[in-house]
Specification:
By secondary structure, the protein is of the alpha/beta class. It folds into two domains: about 140 residues, Quinone Oxidoreductase, Chain A, domain 1, CATH 3.90.180; about 140 residues, 3-Layer(aba) Sandwich (Rossmann fold). Strands 3, 4, 5, 6, 7, 14 and 15 form a seven-stranded mixed beta sheet that branches. A six-stranded parallel beta sheet has the order 10-9-8-11-12-13, sandwiched between helices. The chain has a two-stranded antiparallel ribbon with strand order 1-2. The protein is globular. The protein starts with a strand and ends with a strand. Bound molecules: NADPH dihydro-nicotinamide-adenine-dinucleotide phosphate.
């Protein structure tokens, strides 16, 4: 008899988009090299966009979101992999237009699959998920550009969110001084507990003065929100600093001038976790499993089941998520 499994399915209706837990068969999954029994997934902002009908993320419905999954290989003919291998998948097309990780099974191409690194459990890999991988890529960009722990404070925006909170925890682990930029006054204790030494309100980084440069305050910055917050960061990073950009919850536009670049020599580093090359992924995950792994990883997360996802999706869409939501699949 054919194997059945449960998943969250988002469907379009006259009243918008609604999700329900449904039963599917393995044959319903797309073709692929590797069938994975999923143990954990996680909730990212992009999943919430997919679950609420954003056609820039997901073109056709019904659809199972979930851009992250960690689990065990159930079947494969691919020479590099065997049944029982512990693996994780983040990004590429998973959960966008390929049935995603909010399900007991996924089937994907071999090049999407990363071997679980030593030092990380499946559960921990999904506390990180795409958010943690993106935080890792952002830290790697700072290091590559010479923004080391002794160069000064690093600003992290969207500080209580998934990418922001993990970035703070990793930077703290690496000995950086971190300034958290947050819109949530009630989360100051959380931000201090994961390693922020200073917290400023998001409104302080929403400069409307029209000045081309501001007084410098950061050696570098990890921006997760975009819009005018990113434009403001560019004006207040020290000479030779780097600002990384991965997100757009504050806006997709960037109104800036050339002056931060030509007068202060700063760098703007774009971060993409989705198409990041397969062959370079293992090195980032190995850092996340060892030297970069925060002691506080477990305090960044709360665990939910598939049936809790609709509420959690609303929370993240409303910008009210603190840390990471880990999705326990079984
Ligand atoms: P979260 O929703 O977990 O975090 C976003 C945080 O941004 C919120 O918690 C809040 O933090 C802050 N925020 C919310 N609304 C606004 C607003 N209107 N203006 C300014 N700040 C706001 O999302 P993630 O951390 O998962 O993702 C953050 C961004 O990064 C998203 O845009 C996402 O799409 C993008 N992303 C991009 C990736 C890539 O590969 N380029 C990969 C992963 C994510 P606070 O209240 O503390 O300010």
């Amino acid at each position: 008899m054919e194997t059945t499994f449960q998943c969250l399915l988002v469907s379009e209706s006259a009243n918008g988009y609604a999700s329900a837990i449904v039963t599917k068969t393995i044959n319903d999954l797309p073709e692929g090299d590797i069938l994975i029994r999923v143990r954990y997934s996680s909730l990212n902002y992009k999943d919430a966009l997919s679950a609420s009908g954003n056609r820039g993320v997901t073109r056709t419905y019904p659809h199972t979101p979930g851009i992250d999954a960690a689990g065990v290989i159930e079947s494969t003919n691919h020479p590099d992999w065997k049944v029982g291998d512990e693996v994780l998948v983040t990004g590429f097309d998973l959960g966008m237009n390929t049935s995603g990780g909010f399900a007991q099974y996924i089937r994907v191409p071999a090049r999407w699959v990363v071997r679980l690194p030593k030092g990380l459990s499946l559960r921990e890999s999904m506390i990180y998920g795409t958010a943690g991988f993106t935080a890792g890529l952002s830290v790697a960009a700072l290091l590559k550009n010479g923004v080391t722990a002794d160069t000064g404070s690093i600003g992290v925006t969207g500080a209580t969110g998934g990418v922001g909170s993990i970035a703070i925890a990793i930077l703290h682990r690496l000995g950086y001084t971190v300034t958290a930029v947050s819109g949530k006054a009630a989360s100051h204790h959380f931000l201090t507990s994961i390693g922020a030494s200073d917290i400023i309100n998001r409104a302080e980084l929403d400069d409307t003065s029209g000045k081309i440069l501001l007084k410098t305050r950061f050696a570098g910055a990890i921006d997760t929100v975009g819009g005018n917050v990113l434009a403001t960061l560019l004006k207040c990073v020290h000479y030779g600093g780097t600002v990384t950009a991965c997100g757009m919850v504050n806006g997709g536009e960037l109104n800036t001038t050339v002056f931060p670049f030509i007068l202060r020599g700063i760098q703007l580093a774009g971060i993409d976790s989705v198409e990041f090359p397969s062959e370079k992924r293992a090195a980032i995950w190995q850092n996340l499993a060892t030297d970069w792994k925060p002691d506080t990883l477990d305090t960044l997360v709360h665990e939910i089941g598939l049936s809790d996802l609709p509420d959690a999706i609303q929370t993240i869409l409303n910008g009210r998520m603190q840390g990471r939501a880990l999705v326990r699949i079984e």
